[in-house]
Amino acid sequence: MEIHHNDCDDDVKLPRRETFLWSTVMVVAVMEGSNSAEITERLVDLGHLFSVSDVSSYLTILRSKGLVRTIASRRGIVGGSTWELTEICKKLLGNGNGS
Fold first, then answer.
1. Is the confidence at residue 43, as pLDDT, over 90?
2. Long-range contacts: 55-61, Cβ < 8 Å, 24+?
3. pTM, two decimal places
4. Which CATH architecture is the domain 20-94 placed in?
């Protein structure tokens, strides 16, 4: 079962800067349309010691907060699901409200 959240929730807030969730949002912002493995690879390139399992957990948390959504759900398949930012997350990032 998957839970999907509306992008119009006024209570949506960006994660605090310098956190794992913040780093994950930033990578998704740059690599929209990438899968979990590609996002993990980029985070590792940036110096984070994350596994695909870690990043999948962060992405699931971010999805529950209404910040990312799956474009293609491929749970349990090599590479994992494909992700993008929600419109509300894009608006929050565009407004510079990243605290």
1. yes
2. 55/24, 56/80, 56/81, 58/20, 58/21, 58/24, 59/24, 59/28, 59/83, 61/21
3. 0.81
4. Orthogonal Bundle (1.10)
